[in-house]
Write a structure and sequence with these properties.
It contains 6 helices and 6 strands. It is an alpha/beta fold. It has a 6-stranded mixed sheet, with helices on both faces.
Length: 235
C-alpha cells in the first residue's frame, strides 16, 4: 500500500556566518495599522486589503515616531511586505525618512488559502487549531491552500537573514504583519526554525518593536515589543 504521508519540509541549513568588523545596528519592526479587512470582519492573510482612513492616520503617526527615534544622519533601509496595506504604511515611513522602501514578498502575512477575503466566521467554522504538543510547525489548519507555520517561518527567516547581511552598521525598518512579525524577532535572536513551533510575540496593529545589536558585545537585544504609545488616542 503506497505511503500517503505528505513529504516533510526540510529545515534550511544554518545561515553562513557574517564576516564583519565593528557593528552596531537597530531594527524597527512595524506592523501595519488598521486595514479594511479588520473593520469588515474579513480574513486577512494575503487578502490585499487597503488601510482605512484611520489606518492612514496611524501610519503617519508611526512614521513620525520613527523620524523622532532615528538620527537624521543615520543610514536607513526600509523593507516591506508587498501587500497594499504594508506598502502604504512603508510609503509614509519612507517619506518621513527620505528613503524609498524595498519590497520583499517573503514578509507577507500567512496565507489562509481559500479563506482569504471571506468572512471571519467562515474561517472560524472550519479552522483546525494546532495541538498543544507534537508537530505544530507542519500542522494542517484544514483550509485548502493555507500555509503552515513552517511555510511562514521559512520565508520570513530567509528575508530577515538577507536584510541582516545588508544591515552592517545602520538602521532598518521592517514593515510586516502581526503573525509574520514573530518570525522576524525569532530569526533576530537566533532561534532555530525547528524550535519556533510555539513561539509568539503578540503585537497590535500599528506597533513598533525595537531590536538592537550593541557595538561591543554584539548581543542582539529585544528592547521593546509591540509599542503603540505613539498612536495616542488613535489606538
Amino acid at each position: 500500500m503506497p505511503d500517503s504521508t505528505p513529504p516533510r519540509t526540510p529545515f534550511p541549513p544554518p545561515p553562513l556566518a557574517e564576516v564583519v568588523g565593528a557593528r552596531e545596528r537597530t531594527i524597527h519592526v512595524v506592523t501595519h495599522p488598521e486595514a479594511a479587512h479588520h473593520v469588515e470582519g474579513l480574513v486577512g492573510g494575503v487578502h490585499d486589503s487597503d488601510l482605512t482612513a484611520r489606518g492612514a492616520r496611524q501610519a503617519a503617526l508611526v512614521a513620525a515616531a520613527l523620524r523622532a527615534r532615528i538620527p537624521d544622519d543615520a543610514a536607513v533601509d526600509v523593507v516591506t511586505s508587498d501587500l497594499l496595506r504594508t506598502r502604504r504604511t512603508a510609503s509614509a515611513i519612507g517619506a518621513a525618512l527620505d528613503t524609498v522602501p524595498r519590497l520583499d514578498a517573503r514578509l507577507r502575512e500567512a496565507s489562509y488559502g481559500e479563506a482569504g477575503g471571506r468572512p471571519q466566521d467562515w474561517l472560524d467554522a472550519r479552522f483546525v487549531p494546532p495541538p498543544a504538543v507534537g508537530d505544530r510547525l507542519r500542522h494542517d489548519v484544514g483550509i485548502a491552500g493555507a500555509e503552515t507555520r513552517l511555510d511562514v517561518a521559512l520565508r520570513v527567516y530567509a528575508a530577515t537573514t538577507d536584510l541582516l547581511r545588508r544591515a552592517t552598521d545602520h538602521q532598518v525598518v521592517v514593515v510586516t504583519h502581526g503573525f509574520a512579525a514573530t518570525f522576524v524577532v525569532a530569526a533576530w535572536i537566533g532561534m532555530p526554525v525547528e524550535a519556533a513551533g510555539s513561539v509568539t510575540f503578540p503585537v497590535a496593529s500599528g506597533s513598533i518593536t525595537t531590536l538592537r545589536e550593541d557595538g561591543f558585545f554584539h548581543n542582539r537585544g529585544v528592547l521593546s515589543v509591540g509599542d503603540v504609545a505613539h498612536l495616542g488616542e488613535d489606538r
